[in-house]
Amino acid sequence: xxxxxxxARRSRITPEREAExxxxxxxxxxxVGYDALTMDAVxxxxxxxxxxxxxxxxxxxxxxxxxxxxxxxDHGEGIDTGSLREDLHASIRVDDDCTLEKNSSLMRGVAxxxxxxxxxxxxxxxQLVEPEMSxxxxxxxxxxxxxxxxxxxxxLEFVVHMMVGGFATxxxxxxxxxxxDFLVSYIDAVVLPALGVPTS
Length: 200
Description:
This protein is about 70% helix and about 0% strand. It has helices at about 5-10, 15-30, 40-45, 50-55, 60-70, 85-95, 95-115, 120-145, 160-175, 180-195. Helix 2 crosses helix 5. The termini are far apart.
């Protein structure tokens, strides 16, 4: 489904109603997980008809990913502090610790579901992964143009991997949610040194 078609379909719903619907979808997702979430359940929770949901979003995968995207700020695109270190720190501080914890838990559940759901995987990549990568790539490009990072730095192609690793391994290895303090320290100790950027 193209962005234009999706936008045209959603245009019949007010922004307030759309936000309410997305919140209900995320609540259901936290309660039962992706696989057990049904369009019938969404329709019941949001007092919508299932036909309306399918007309607006085409299916469960698109609806779930749109709901997640609705609550996630764009990291990178609107951040330009003049230094890579401050840009990365600012991208972490967009969300408070409570939001980071909720999003981390939600994303882990969706990531597991993606293994068996190609529609979810495609929608997730198109709506969330690629825009996120684009924002970080723009941030890095500006750092290269400013002379902060060498264009031939071998760590450049792994920046997004490193950032995702900071979020994921905190929960896996320490059974702790990511926090602003942890992620800022991780950026200073791991990401920036790999790119050859001073941290003080």
